[in-house]
Every structure is written in structure tokens, then in C-alpha cells.
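Catalogue entry: protein

Sequence with per-residue C-alpha cells
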Amino acid sequence: MKLKQRFNLASVSKPLTALGILLLVQENKIKLDDDINKWFANLPYDNITVRHLLQHTSGLPDYIELFADHWNESTFASNEDVLQLLTQYAPPRLFEAGEQMVYSNTGYVLLSLLIERVTNKSFSTYMTEAIFNPLNMKHTTVTSTTFIEEYPCEIAQVYVYDVYSGKHIRPVEFEETRDTVYLDYITGDGGIYSTVEDLWKLGRAVICAQLWNKELLEQAFTPSTLSAEQSFPYGMGWMIYEDEQLGTCVSHTGGWPGYAATFKIFLQSKTIFVFLRSKEQGLTYEQAIEKALKTNELILPKKPKQLKAIHLSTELLEGYVGKYYLQENPEYAIEVVLQPNNRLYIFTKYNANGITCN
């Protein structure tokens, strides 16, 4: 592993997309409260603003479920395909914009498309010219390499753990992650590859307000407020929390088959934390490294024992099949399904009425 090796940032791409949008706001090319129908005239949803997309308060349904129902998985999908399916099938919105907050990959895909419509450049070109090049982020790109056969030497090799064989294998070889192949070229919500060093450069630029004015960044780092005057700890592209020792932290995490990423900026202490991994999430390692920021002592945990799946009877597995509702959040349904391969899968869908789930 080398310092300049690139990793898929997955959803850590979202704050970068948001920073790209904020530059357009700063240049007066768009406004945060512009209605997105200004750029997406055929989108069958109204009263959604750029701000709603940034804050996950748009109420737009998640495109991943839409593709699962209406897409040929042998064909790679694009951002334009996301827009086309939303327009063609018009799945019901989860709630009116601004009423609630539900994490939305769809919103950030539309932000990527919005950048392209406003600038007449590809999302990749715009991000490179507006952010990556000015900050000397030489190893950051918008690309797709998760499922290619041969990796360039600068890309971190990626694996997932197969509990059935007890081995680490390529995501494209693993049944549970193979289905995500066709989504690998969608950007905005993900799709950016970067390095520890480049994200450190970005963190420094944010702390020093190098490309963005302080007032705009303060807006991005302010917890959002819903129409009912209820606030939640997510700004415009950033999760927000207070650390007793290091102060206000703006951050994001991300995961894609074989990759895990965490990016944190502690604003008061001017501390930057970057954790990139080319396997599944390693929370114990991440927590140990973050603890070292406060103690100046790094104590790595023991390597966890890899578990291997055991065979269970179909009759036993069928006992877990069904829909589950949390008492605290009855609007969310969790459905457990037994697939023909005799494995249980969990599906989650938002249920606006808290009664039924399709």
C-alpha cells in the first residue's frame, strides 16, 4: 500500500459534489433556493430546490430500488438513465420537500447533472478544473474501476470477504455484490477516486477557506432545519457533530463493494482525519487511529477472526421471512426475503404511511 494509491470514496464523494455546487453558488451561476425544475423540466416533482438536494430533504425516492425494478442489469447505467427512469416511472415522493430528512443518493446524482447543465462540462471535467487542479489534487479523478479485470498500479486492489468460502475475492466474483456492477458509472453520490494525501489537501483548503468564502462554508456546516423547525445534524453535504476535545467536526463516510472511506475535518482544532480501506469496513482500526489523534498513541486492535457461514435448513430460514417495523420509526419497513440460493436478504423501503410497504 502506498500513500498515492487511489481508493473509491463512495459516498465521501457527496461532500465533494456539494463543494462543486457551492462554487457555482459563489459565482452566482445558481442559487441555493432555485427550483431544480429550472434544469429538469420533465422531472415529475415540484417545489424541490438545490438546497433540498444538498440536505437530503427533497423526498425523492432512491434510484437504486427504481433500477432494481426497471433496468437490464447487463447494461451499465448513467446519470441520464437515473433521470430518465424518474421521469418515465414517476415513483411517488417520500414526503413533501423540506418536511423530513431521508438520505438520498438520487439527490446527489441530480446535483451532478445540474453541474453539467449549468457549466456545459462533464461532471468529471468540472470537478477537475474547479477543485482538483487548483488544490493540486493530482491523484483525484471521477472514474470507475471497481469491476475492471486488471487494476492500474495506482488503484488500490479491492476485495470483499466471502463468508461462504472463507476467502477474500473480487466484488465481481461475489454473488451479493455482483448486482451492483451496472451502477458503477453513476456519479455525484459516488464515483470519485482519491488518496489520503489529496483528501488532506482538500481538508486544508476547507479549513482555510481557500476556494470558498467563509460565509458559504458556514452555511454548509450549519445543521439543517425542517419545515417543522426541527433541526438535524446534516448540513449541505456534511454530517456534523461536536467532539469534546477536537471541537466541531464535519464529516462523511462511504462504502462500496470492497471499499470503505471516512473523511473528517475538525474545524476548531484544524485536524483532518482520513481513513481509506480496500476491504469492507474496519471500524475497530478506524476508531483506534482516530483515538490516536487525541492521545498521540496508536494501539492497533488485534486482527479479527474471519467468520465462515454455516449451513442452515430452508425451514429454519423461512421463519425469518417477513416485514419488520421499528416502533421508534414505523415509517421504515425492513423486509427479509429468502432467495433461491437459500440465503436471506434484507431490503429496506420507506413507507410514508407507516402501514404498508411495496
